[in-house]
Design a protein that fits this description.
By secondary structure, the chain is α+β, with helices and mostly antiparallel strands. It has helices at 20-36, 54-70, 78-102, 108-121, 129-135, 140-160, 169-181, 204-222, 227-234, 256-263, 315-330, 335-342, 365-371, 403-434, and strands at residues 43-47, 50-53, 188-197, 245-250, 274-276, 279-289, 296-307, 354-358, 383-385, 388-401, 437-439. Helix content is 48%, strand content 17%. Strands 4-3-6-5 form a 4-stranded antiparallel sheet, with helices on both faces. Strands 8-7-10-9 form a 4-stranded antiparallel sheet.
Length: 441
Amino acid sequence: MRQIAISSVPMCMVLGLAALAVQGSASAQTRELATQGELLDRVVAIVNDGVVLNSDLDTQLEVISERLRQQKLELPPQNVLRQQVLERLVLQEIQVQRANHAGVKVSDEMLNSALQDVAKRNGLTFTQLPDTLKQQGIDYAEYREDIRKEMMLQLLRQRDVLQHISVTPREIDQFLDKQAKTPSERNEYNVSHILIAVGQEASPAQQDAAAKRAEEVYTRAKSGEDFAKLAVAYSNSQTALEGGALGWRKGSELPTFLADLIAKLKPGEVSEPLRTPTGYHIIRLNEVRGGTENAIEDQVHVRHILMKTNDLADDATVRGKLEALRERILKGEDFGAVAQVTSQDPGSAAEGGDLGWAGPGTYAPEFEQAISTLKDNEISEPFHSQFGWHIVQMLGHRRFDNTDEIRRRQAVEAIRASKADEETELWLRRMRDDAYVEFKS
């Protein structure tokens, strides 16, 4: 049940509604062509048993170009940018196929919650969102499905990558020992990154070509050429079309293979290419700022009953079952006894659903939001998270000096975060190498 939660808002959502007007315009142009009897679309890439369409490529090219212009980044040549966007769409199609095959789904409840976040970010209510999108030429139904796809890919990454990142007690001890000796580990770093990928089955000639490309990009970046522009043009990382930006990271949260390298850089400096299993990495340190650490935290003690949907029980059915259980408990049945019999959380059912004392950030965002207003002994209404449907009873609140536990928990989160980027790139490279991809001219 407890684990580091993925972001509740997909990347496309944080761009706001302004950039989406471009997408709506592109859709309108496609509809106009349809009325004129012209060629509507064509396949630009075959991906396993799926395809990438030219209309999708053109739309994403416009959206990303507009975003880069808003960020005041110089666009690379159109053919270079087009190939970068096409490769991202190919990777997205591969992931969608894998998610569908694995049965990864996003319920309407989860989707509506995410869309409420979109509306709030844009100063709207949830009910105002469809009309606002319509005014910008964006079909609400299509927009919902785009957001659903983004969320599905996040859940797939959680399932295939993040859940399999393990942290051993020895790694925690080593991390804390290193942190004690190097206070700069608690600093925060604003970093940009370029990856020149090398496939797992790359020939010696291909490896040599990648090494030469990495050296060329490094030389150009070191001489003062715009790093973000180079990233858009040459990087094979998932952050390429964001100018290679990794954003602010605590020193302890940097990818393991980069931490020591970045510690040696001064703001504005670019590292020499670093070879790893995924390829050659070139790093630019943009800024550094000091971090803080708190030892006192507000903790909550809760217990819960978890129920999941299946082929025989949809969201409405499961929610109804939990509402019935809640009524039984309110009438006097023991929460713990009911949880032992009905909860589908293997980690807590035997303990009557007891999750123990926990501080901020322990649970998934939806879970934390649902329990944030509960008073002692109060039982929540049924709510949904990425794990299923829950009812929760609040057993208590406390402020607790938990310095050692906090440091170990933060160490686990930092180690997992430092592994996540590299593991994700490896995962994507493996899927890309294993896929059948044919580009159409």
